[in-house]
Design brief:
four-stranded antiparallel β-sheet; 10 helices; 16 strands
Length: 398
């Protein structure tokens, strides 16, 4: 049986596997059952693995080349779910209240399991292959922890990674479309909290207070000027204030107001500039208003930047697998974040999107919503692409 037929025959098993993961979602660093399912799949395939990584739930599978002299290709999937209550009404909906696979990591994990099941049956493999099943993509930087544990540098298995690939289901693209681009693919993600301390008092006598609400209102407005007046219009930066809390009564000016938000950028120099201007604006306005600002800054994921050499290799292989007409250019970077970025800091890497919107859908439910579900129809093509990325010769960088 050839690889294409084997993958198609395995589709029913993989769909059932994915539905089982979907029914039993686990939050970051709690992916114990999911990790056990992965380990069982690796043991069934008869390949080496190391479990217990990245704090306990990460798994690294290893399939060595059958002849010496090849490269090492790493393929990555994330495993964690989100704290969202599912509203899909599916027969295989989450059985854990308040937790669901709202970002498709059940699909990503299933695709990599399918890739393992396919590749272990191919007798001639020129490359070493590493299968990275990582926890905690949703804010826990599980990718960084996997790298720190040595999944790329050859310290776990005797194979230092030459190139790495990862994917993400993309509901805004049509089913079966494959999208990628050179350079920044997804944004750096930094978070912040600001507490403005003032002098409260009676709402009827604001002149006797230093109102932190008025100060915060001006800060919120002024922050948006960073994008419009401090950054090149052809560059990208996003400041979103997602939460504001302050006050308890309609006739009391509070002592403290707090906001929380995020900054997204695509270039390292813009990331530095945005943070510097943020601090200047917040502290300057707070001082001018007779208040005091306390700022907590939370550095997030780096930019997910695709290496041009690795991405050219990906395009050619994907075109050979699914056809040239289905491999498209992602027109612009996405301002969401991804901890696949940590792999790209160490080795040439490419991240790609897989379209999931069915032909009968004008608009598919977005990721991170209660109605999202991964499209099982794309699993075979994804397994085929990932398999070929692992098998094809890795030519030296020009």
């Amino acid at each position: 049986m050839n690889s294409k037929d084997r993958i198609q025959e395995d589709h029913a098993f993989l769909t059932e596997f994915r539905h089982d993961l979907h029914q039993h979602p686990e939050l970051m660093f709690q992916e114990k059952r999911t990790s056990q399912c992965v380990v069982a799949a690796l043991e069934s395939a008869g390949i080496e693995y190391r479990a217990g990584l990245a704090g306990g739930t990460g798994v690294l599978g290893f399939l060595p080349a059958t002849e010496p002299g090849g490269a090492t290709v790493a393929l990555r999937a994330d495993m964690d779910a989100l704290p969202i209550h599912e509203e899909t009404g599916l027969a295989y909906a989450s059985q854990t209240p308040g937790v669901m696979h709202a970002c498709g990591h059940d699909g990503h994990t299933t695709i990599l399991v399918g890739t393992v099941r396919n590749l272990c049956q191919i007798p001639d493999r020129k490359n070493n292959i590493l299968f990275i099943f990582q926890p905690a993509e949703e804010g826990g930087a599980g990718g960084e922890k996997m790298c720190e544990d040595g999944v790329l540098d050859g310290s776990i298995f005797p194979a230092k990674v030459d190139v790495a690939y990862g994917l993400h289901g993309w509901p805004s693209a049509s089913e079966g479309e494959i999208l990628t681009k050179d350079g920044p693919m997804m944004a750096a993600t930094d978070g912040f909290r600001v507490r403005v301390h003032g002098q409260g008092g009676h709402a009827a006598a604001p002149h006797t207070t230093h109102d932190p609400i008025v100060a915060m209102a001006q800060i919120i407005t002024a922050i948006q000027s960073i994008a419009s007046r401090s950054v090149d219009p052809l560059d990208s930066i996003v400041f979103t204030i997602a939460a504001v809390h302050g006050g308890e009564a309609q006739n009391v000016i509070p002592e403290v107001v707090e906001l929380r938000g995020t900054m997204r950028t695509l270039l390292p120099e813009t990331r530095i500039l945005g943070k510097d201007r943020f601090f200047e604006i917040v502290q300057g306005i707070a001082t001018a208003m007779g208040t005091r600002a306390e700022i907590d800054w939370y550095p997030g994921y780096p930019v997910t930047a695709n290496d041009s050499w690795a991405t050219d290799r990906f395009r050619q292989i994907a075109r050979d697998v699914v056809g040239e007409d289905r491999v498209l250019e992602q027109p612009v970077a996405v301002m969401g974040g991804e901890d696949f970025s940590y792999y790209g800091l160490q080795v040439p890497a490419t991240f790609f999107f897989v379209g999931m919107r069915r032909a009968d859908q004008d608009e598919a439910p977005s990721v991170h919503t209660p109605r999202f579900d991964f499209n099982d129809a794309v699993i075979p093509d994804c397994v085929a692409i990932m398999s070929q990325l692992a098998l094809d010769p890795v030519l030296s960088r020009p």
